[in-house]
Amino acid sequence: xxxxxxxxxxxxxxxxxxxxxxxxxxxxxxxxxxxxxxxxxxxxxxxxxxxxxxxxxxxxxxxxxxxxxxxxxxxxxxxxxxxxxxxxxxxxxxxxxxxxxxxxxxxxxxxxxxxxxxxxxxxxxxxxxxxxxxxxxxxxxxxxxxxxxxxxxxxxxxxx
Amino acid sequence: xxxxxxxxxxxxxxxxxxxxxxxxxxxxxxxxxxxxxxxxxxxxxxxxxxxxxxxxxxxxxxxxxxxxxxxxxxxxxxxxxxxxxxxxxxxxxxxxxxxxxxxxxxxxxxxxxxxxxxxxxxxxxxxxxxxxxxxxxxxxxxxxxxxxxxxxxxxxxxxxxxxxxxxxxxxxxxxxxxxxxxxxxxxxxxxxxxxxxxxxxxxxxxxxxxxxxxxxxxxxxxxxxxxxxxxxxxxxxxxxxxxxxxxxxxxxxxxxxxxxxxxxxxxxxxxxxxxxxxxxxxxxxxxxxxxxxxxxxxxxxxxxxxxxxxxxxxxxxxxxxxxxxxxxxxxxxxxxxxxxxxxxxxxxxxxxxxxxxxxxxxxxxxxxxxxxxxxxxxxxxxxxxxxxxxxxxxxxxxxxxxxxxxxxxxxxxxxxxx
Lengths: 160, 418
Fold this sequence. Notes:
- The structure holds two protein chains of two kinds.
- Chain A is an alpha/beta fold.
- Chain A is about 20% helix and about 30% strand.
- In chain A, a hairpin with a 7-residue loop joins β3 and β4.
- Chain B is mostly helical.
- Chain B has two domains: about 5-65, no CATH class; about 85-315 and about 345-415, Cytochrome-c3 Hydrogenase, chain B (Orthogonal Bundle), CATH 1.10.645.10.
- Chain B has 18 helices and eight strands.
- In chain B, the strands form three sheets. A three-stranded antiparallel β-sheet of chain B has the order 1-2-3. Chain B has a three-stranded antiparallel β-sheet with strand order 6-7-8. Chain B has a two-stranded antiparallel ribbon with strand order 4-5.
- The longest helix of chain B has 29 residues, at about 120-150.
């Protein structure tokens, strides 16, 4: 079933698909950042793909000079019961990437969380506030250059 | 920046989010009696530290903005700095109402990454403890929901049953809440005959006790009328918002990973997936109730079918050896040293493994770079995604329905805030 999906994607988006990886029976498809909304809309609406359920959106910090950040979409199809994973790369010099809340409204909070943790800005997101950290917090905690013990005085403490 | 300025920024942003919110609620004759109400983070009906900012017109909710993060402990950051084994105790603190289920879900993801499979007996024991955790979590969900809408007695009755279960967990794992029972490729130790007897005794008396609670609630007119038709969500909305667990099964979608993507031994067991179509608070309550009954069936079947055998996979380089063997054997001592100091070292790659936890789809996405600790670990927590629909469910309803909606969504903030 998934092979059909991958073939269809390659057929329709030959220029957008950067790489297809297989590991432990799971498929990861690396997609061009600019085309992610088109690919997602296709995956949701096409009859033989029908990825109507967005399990999760999350970020990752590869800590590489190029394409430092990744945004990962774990998708699931309620009708065919298969999973697929999309991945886009976001460079540190341009932290913007398109938001997919027009495709799956449920991606709203996960995208806010990714912004909160990595500082990736989702264009087209209507409410991109921090999810967990306080609004005035200046850092992005899940970046690899943020120390695990935190930055002293980064959060003002209540008066005694 | 001092604390006053910081508080100002926090308040302004969330207030702006509430004021600018596109809401679907329109009033024919608005009372022009607008009020902003802050509910939580210390409100008893929010089941933890959830904060809701609510815009009211009279008693009707016009807009609602949930605010999370009051219990954020940074587990994903922590996971990147500890070994795969060291993270197991932290999974207890995610959904603290069903720690055994989280332990199981996490090690299943790690095992998939490492490429090993636990022996059959381990899988049966994991299924039993998962279902026991589901019963205990749903009992709290039902009890707290009933308490929120005014039926206080049921809460104490379901807690009595949960106490018995925690006694069993203590017998099994040595701890009531922070169980940390599973290991990569196995379990901390075997399930002893005493525990099996205790579970059998509990299961034998449980259906009758559950029936007492059901009789209290299902025929209680106040309870039913406060739930019926309240907080309705449609199928399309539930799918689009990424709902999972009992909440999505209450809108008529048979989405249960135990059936659709079977893990452990669920494909060898006979059980039903309760599905209802109404999508309101009452439907969510009934789905939980019926799931408890199905879990009882699963536990009984597992106890019957459970084979004898080892509780560790035969993978010496990946699975922690037994303590007594470390003290007496050279090979085991070396393996223990390597595993503790350098870790499991799975191959380079990434996996996502999800299980059907009591709240919904609990997934662990792990990126490995071949080191002893994860490069990136993402927890897909069901409560987080379920809470996302809160504003959709409460907007347009009455203010007193908020507690019923929150209770029926059954979120756990430990998991939602990570």
